[in-house]
Amino acid sequence: MVSKSMGGSRVHNFAHFLGESIKGAMDLNMWVEPIVAGWIGYILADLGSGVYHWAIDNYGDGSTPIVGAQIEAFQGHHKWPWTITRRQFANNLHALARAVTFTVLPIALVCHDPIVQGFVGVCSGCIMFSQQFHAWAHGTKSRIPPLVVTLQETGVLVSRSQHATHHRPPYNNNYCIVSGVWNEFLDRHKVFEAMEMVLYFKTGVRPRSWSEPASEWIEEIETPSLLQAQ
Fold first, then answer.
1. Dihedral of alpha carbons 103, 107, 108, 109, sign
2. What is the pLDDT of residues 181-207, one digit of tens each?
3. Dihedral sign of CA atoms 49, 183, 132, 171 in order
4. Cα separations (Å) of 161 from 54, 58, 87?
5. In the chain, what are the helix, strand and coil shares in percent, each to the nearest 5?
6. Is 66 left (phi over 0), alpha (psi -120 to 50) or beta?
7. What pLDDT, in 10s, does the model give residues 38-67?
8. pTM: predicted TM-score of the whole model, two decimal places
């Protein structure tokens, strides 16, 4: 179990970095460039979440170095997707928050350009919070904060209906979990399918999406006994 204070400290680090960008913009009377840089960071964070989600959904297993635990967790998530809504905020964020902290901290120490800070702050923040956005995409409308529902319905955050498609066979679409803005483009142009073909011809490794879903990918219906087990 991850403590709330640990998760909170990493959120504070992200807020401090973004605050430095705003302070630098004010000092230099520069607003447009950091805002545009932040918007680009937001867009690219969604793309990054999709590429990473696709990779761990389709390749590797629990023994894979560094990301093995996440691969197992995502496979379990396909079987019991509703459990993500039962976890504490810090539990959803801690793994990504740790990675983001070690990546962003060196940048924060050496770079004080508000444009770079705006890009890195928003991009890393969206990546760090992507698992919470993901959790909200599994929530029911009545249990999600009204502001979050509005952000989902306006496309700022990935919507519940869009992400639900990812959890239906053949489980090979709608991978992006920040805003989902890239999903239509990536799926329509079969970008991930093309990447799978390249990897297959280069390495001989088949993605999981090419096979019939294994039992660990078949969603189980939420029942009181399963809730107790989880």
1. positive
2. 999 999 999 999 999 999 999 999 999
3. negative
4. 19, 22, 21
5. 70, 0, 30
6. left
7. 999 999 999 999 999 999 999 999 899 988
8. 0.83
